[in-house]
Design goal:
With 91 residues, this protein is of the alpha+beta class. The chain is built from three helices and four strands, in the order ββαβαβα.
Length: 91
């Protein structure tokens, strides 16, 4: 199984995985509007991989086979307040 990964020009750390290069036919129009014009990032084979850098490989494979795309969003921002409170609990 191959996938093509595109980077969003409008949203930092947001990536769109599709099965075929430049085939966005299964991606909802509204999602593409918010994503912006997809910029090719890389093409890779998922068959011999156990993991991906920023996404769960099993979820990617499942989403590609079921809906034809996978949207990788950036991780949520760290809450400095929560970090501070957790550190104070340990002290």
């Amino acid at each position: 199984m191959f996938c093509v990964i595109y980077r969003s020009p409008q949203r930092d750390q947001t990536y769109l995985y599709v099965e075929k290069k430049d085939d966005f036919s299964r991606v909802p129009e509204e999602l593409l509007r918010g994503f912006g014009k997809p910029q090719l990032s890389m093409v890779l084979s998922l068959e011999k991989r156990d993991k991906l850098a920023g996404a769960d490989i099993n979820k990617v494979k499942q989403a590609l086979s079921e809906q034809g795309y996978y949207l990788q969003l950036p991780p949520p921002p760290e809450s400095l307040l929560n970090i501070h409170l957790q550190q104070n609990k340990k002290d």
